[in-house]
Design brief:
This protein has 601 residues and is an alpha+beta fold. It has 14 helices and 26 strands. The protein has helices spanning 11-17, 56-71, 103-106, 109-114, 117-136, 177-193, 209-221, 233-245, 271-297, 316-324, 385-395, 450-459, 506-525, 538-545; strands at residues 18-25, 30-37, 43-50, 81-87, 90-95, 101-102, 149-151, 157-159, 306-307, 331-337, 347-351, 357-358, 363-369, 374-376, 400-405, 415-419, 425-427, 432-437, 440-441, 463-469, 479-483, 489-490, 495-501, 567-570, 573-577, 595-600. The protein has a 5-stranded antiparallel sheet, with helices on both faces. The chain is elongated. The N and C termini lie far apart (77 Å).
């Protein structure tokens, strides 16, 4: 037995409760104990976190918030949090131990002896599946690494939850899901590389197909540019799945899986865990009898409960209808992701996955494909810069940089080179650099007054023509949009067409006033203000079915939810939603995206 050292925070009180067998220093403030709880007799892991210092109050608050959130989690890979509290200036959290060895103790030759590179990808997949649960609840792990991951001989993978507040993320920003992704990438590299040193120009992972795939995954997950890095565990796991499916199968000595096998009596299974295992077994037996009926009716296996149906490949509307038919009310949210396996606009994944039990009020998150992960670079060399931008936007490229170089014999703004080159397969959000013939760059005039825009163009040696911007919501006299658009490179003396707002029409103002008046009357008269249903004529119904006038839709609003068929105006164009979406900007949409351009305004 190991006794707590005098330097260990809170040792007097904690020594009386926990019989310590091992102690690991995880950071300057965090210590992990392997111990027996004298109150319950169960083996436990105890996280000790020193909250001393001037920022102690903030550290204590952060620890408690994470502890409370983790206590609600239930996942076989994540260490169950049993309790926690404060003792003599030390915050502590008690978790059930996962059996197995720390990856930190296995890295190097011992790791390769027991786990192949191909199987290391399976381990990462199990960890990402657990992270999906955290990220789906707006939580982060914050401490992923060889010191918090365990690996058992039977294939069980465990991830230790630490309530210690996370440090800053990349660039000093708040630690987020992308930082967890970077930590997973670093863990993968550590598992396959160990203590080895790669030769110049070589990779720790090797030069074969598996090695190249691992190197690409590590590079993508740890890319310093957050625009190139997967947004969270869902996106990184999708990329991992695509990579694994492209590799040849390999026989392994280790099969990674989420649920650790039950330990024998010699290992001292805690009574609480044994009771949970027997309860789980009884639940499975009860569910099997009703599985066939559920498959037909989509009803739960038990009264007051249900099983998560398989929603992959359905539209959000179909998935929502199917969930609404279950005998439990659910909190359903959606998010846009990229996928090469599922058609744009369809559900790519759900959290929880199909087959999981659902209870009343359970949170369900559906991932909807917003387009492929990778796209082909279109042919743009020889076209004008504005046409090249439009071609790139159609393919989903939004990060476009233009470099001007002098060239004889070609009009200004002609694309002479592109990086990536035509036909290359690149990530959908890859940056594109266009080299164009030197000329005059059109400034961004949107929001300027008509006179300011005309004067600015004249100073640059450009001609201008003013047209009315139909349906613009901008104040009268402001530029709604212009062609060529901002950043376009044109010849000196080229014509720029300015679409200028005429302000709201009298009909729109009258309609707004009538709507306000009607609202006040309704408040005063209540139900009596509504006319009988039979007094409605057919003519108004026909008017309601007519398509709205072009460019009269409201402006797109970030964070708003738009059902299929909804129309918005954004950056001088009107768009229509091809399917339900909430996080995609119309300007970043493409042929696979949720928005379809209707007309220019």
């Amino acid at each position: 037995m190991v006794t707590l050292s005098p330097e260990t925070p809170g040792n007097e009180t904690l020594r009386r409760r926990f019989r310590v067998h091992d102690e690991r220093q995880l950071s300057a403030r965090t210590t992990l104990l392997e111990a027996d709880d004298t109150e319950t007799g169960d083996p436990v892991r105890v996280e000790l976190f020193d909250v001393g210092g001037t920022d102690g109050a903030d550290l204590t608050k952060g620890f408690r918030e994470r502890l409370r959130a983790f206590e609600e989690l239930d996942h076989p890979v994540l260490s169950p949090v049993l309790s926690g509290g404060m003792r003599e200036g030390t915050a502590y959290a008690v978790t059930e131990p996962h059996h197995g060895a720390w990856v930190d103790d296995l890295i190097g030759e011992r790791f390769q002896e027991r786990v192949s590179r191909r199987e290391a990808l399976d381990i990462v997949d199990v960890l990402l599946e657990a992270l999906e649960v955290l990220h789906g609840q707006d939580l982060v792990h914050g401490h992923i690494g060889p010191r918090t991951v365990t690996l058992a001989d039977d294939g069980g993978v465990g991830l230790l939850l630490l309530a210690a507040p996370t440090g800053p993320g990349q660039g000093g920003a708040v630690f987020g899901p992308q930082d967890d992704v970077a930590a997973i990438a670093a863990l993968l590299e550590a598992m396959v590389a160990g203590d080895a040193t790669a030769d110049a120009g070589d990779s720790h992972a090797g030069r074969d197909a598996v090695g190249r795939a691992i190197s690409a995954l590590v590079a993508r997950g740890s890319d310093p540019d957050p625009r190139q890095r997967p947004a969270d565990a869902v996106e990184y796991r999708a990329l991992l799945g695509q990579t694994v499916r492209s590799l040849p199968p390999a026989e392994g000595r280790h099969v990674a899986r989420a649920a650790p096998a039950e330990r024998g009596a010699a290992e001292g299974t805690p009574p609480r865990r044994r009771a949970l295992l027997w309860a789980a077994l009884a639940l499975v037996v009860a569910l099997v009898g009703g599985a066939a009926l559920w498959a037909v009716t989509q009803q739960g296996a038990e009264p007051g409960g249900a099983l998560m149906p398989d929603l992959v490949g359905l539209s959000p509307e179909e998935a929502s209808d199917l969930l609404a038919e279950l005998p439990v009310a659910l909190e359903v949210t959606y998010r846009d992701v990229r996928s090469d396996d599922v058609e744009a606009g369809l559900v790519t994944a759900s959290s929880p996955e199909s087959g999981h039990e659902l209870v009343e009020g359970a949170a369900v998150r559906l991932s909807v494909a917003a387009g492929p992960l990778t796209v082909l670079m279109p042919e743009v060399v020889g076209s004008l810069e504005q046409d090249a931008r439009e071609a790139l936007e159609e393919e989903g490229f939004t990060d476009v940089e233009v470099v001007q170089e002098p060239s004889e014999g070609l009009p200004a703004g002609t694309v002479t080179e592109s990086d990536p080159q035509e036909g290359e397969t690149v990530p959908h959000d890859a940056a594109v650099v266009l080299t164009v013939v030197e000329g005059v760059t059109v400034p961004d005039l949107v929001g300027s007054s008509e006179q300011e825009a005309v004067d600015t163009l004249a100073e640059l040696g450009l001609e201008s023509r003013v047209e009315e911007a139909a349906g613009s919501e901008r104040p009268s006299g402001e530029v709604e949009n212009h062609t060529p658009g901002p950043g376009a490179v044109v010849e000196e003396g080229a014509l720029v067409v300015l679409a200028v707002s005429a302000g709201p029409t009298e009909d729109e103002e009258d309609a707004a006033q009538e709507e306000d008046t009607g609202t006040e009357d309704d408040r005063e008269e209540g139900q009596a203000a509504a006319p009988p249903a039979q007094e409605h004529s057919e003519e108004p119904r026909q008017e309601e079915q007519e398509q709205p006038a072009p460019c009269t839709s409201g402006s797109w609003s970030e964070g708003a939810t738009y059902p299929e068929g909804a129309r918005v105006v954004h950056e001088g164009k009107e768009y229509e939603a091809a399917w339900w979406n909430s996080e995609s900007s119309p300007s970043e949409s493409n042929e696979w995206g949720p928005w379809r351009p209707v007309t220019s305004c």
